[in-house]
Write a structure and sequence with these properties.
- It is a single chain.
- It is built from 15 helices and 2 strands.
- It has a two-stranded antiparallel ribbon with strand order 1-2.
- It is globular and about 60 Å long.
- It has one domain.
- The protein is mainly α.
- 43% of the residues are buried.
Length: 361
């Protein structure tokens, strides 16, 4: 245990969780686990028009916000919007995703408060519901019980799942997901209880008022740029994991599952770009291999918290396990193909032992 008496142990037991699928580490990957489940039953979508209208407004207003960023906004407002975008992304990646949904590490009250604030700023539902849906996504990937089932098309996986009523399987199997760890976390339950009060304040009201009050930005610009456009861009970046991250890209760790390594998100460094790796090893706090693969923003933040003693029990996967999995189920696109590859890490080269060297006459 770390020197923090205020840490709450999450989950049914310290070493088990409903999220870690044994088949992810098995020789057949996850395909066998899903083969008996439906990918889609052709059910007609029941549209939720209030959501559709709101999303149309948000995306239209965000296009105007982008134009304002190019023509009108003060530089302080642009910087403020980027900062808010980064903090909100950490609330999803380091918080809702890696800490609460997958329990890849543990954290004290200070870290959980910080990440809950960032998460509320992101407005992607309360951690409690976000984690439930994400655990269900891993348990039932690309079946009718998957909230953002990519087998129903790119648009559905990206935004359509929020514009229609849930498939009955999502509701039924969502009730079976173990959420006892979240129910025992008073901070998560506090956010859940008061979310509809906290979210408008942190996501929209404060991001609008701060630029107006502190550097005299116009109310229209403050509303359209750091509030709406920042939020809309954040949503679409996360949604890309559900859509493109299950359709386009390579599968170096398991070719039998739909999640891919998405180049754009890898380049962005906000985390979760190595989505194929994540679905194979969902308990890894890095969401990627060791070394240059794990240098994204949430991983760096978690490591900073760990050095401060605020985060601990960071779970990772050994390189030996990764190599064996790549050779067994990968699609052959893993960056390091062998000796001489320009991407071969120097530390691996330096630590290699070469025996029976050719004698130079």
């Amino acid at each position: 245990m770390p020197p923090n008496s205020d840490v709450i142990e999450l989950g049914p037991s310290p070493d088990t969780t409903d999220v870690l699928c044994e088949t992810d580490a098995g020789p057949k990957g996850t395909a066998s686990d899903l083969s008996t489940l439906k990918s889609t039953d052709g059910r007609k979508l029941e549209l939720v028009w209030i959501n559709i209208i709101l999303f149309i407004y948000v995306h239209t207003a965000s296009l105007y916000g982008i134009w304002l960023m190019l023509t009108t906004t003060k530089w302080q407002t642009d910087v403020f919007a980027v900062i808010l975008f980064s903090l909100a992304s950490l609330g999803i990646t380091a918080g809702a995703h890696r800490l609460w949904a997958h329990r890849t590490y543990k954290a004290n009250v200070a870290v959980r408060l910080i990440l809950l604030f960032f998460n509320t700023l992101a407005f992607q539902d309360a951690v409690y519901y976000w984690a439930r849906d994400h655990r269900l996504h891993h348990k039932c990937t690309d079946t009718d019980a998957d909230p953002y089932n990519s087998k129903r098309g790119w648009w559905f996986a990206h935004i359509g799942w929020l514009c229609c009523k849930k498939h009955p399987d999502v509701t039924a199997k969502g009730k079976l997901i173990d959420l006892s760890d979240l129910q025992r976390d008073p901070l998560v339950m506090f956010q859940k209880k008061y979310y509809l009060i906290l979210m408008p304040i942190f996501c929209f009201i404060l991001p609008t008022l701060v630029p107006v009050y502190f550097w005299g930005e116009s109310l229209s610009v403050a509303w359209h740029v750091p509030a709406l456009t920042r939020w809309c861009l954040m949503l679409n970046v996360v949604w890309l994991l559900n859509s493109s991250g299950h359709m386009h890209g390579k599968r170096p760790y398991d070719r039998s599952i739909s999640p891919t390594s998405l180049v754009f998100l890898i380049w962005l460094r906000y985390g979760e770009g190595y989505h194929n790796y994540h679905h194979v090893f969902p308990w890894d706090y890095k969401g990627a291999e060791m070394g240059r693969y794990s240098q994204d923003l949430p991983t760096i933040l978690i490591r900073i918290f760990a050095r401060l003693g605020w985060a601990y029990d960071l779970k990772s996967v050994s390189m030996d396990m990764v190599r064996k999995r790549v050779l067994r189920t990968g699609d052959g696109t893993h960056p390091v193909w062998g000796w001489g590859d320009k991407e071969h890490p120097q530390e691996d080269i330096d630590s290699t032992t070469i025996t029976y060297k050719k004698k130079v006459k």
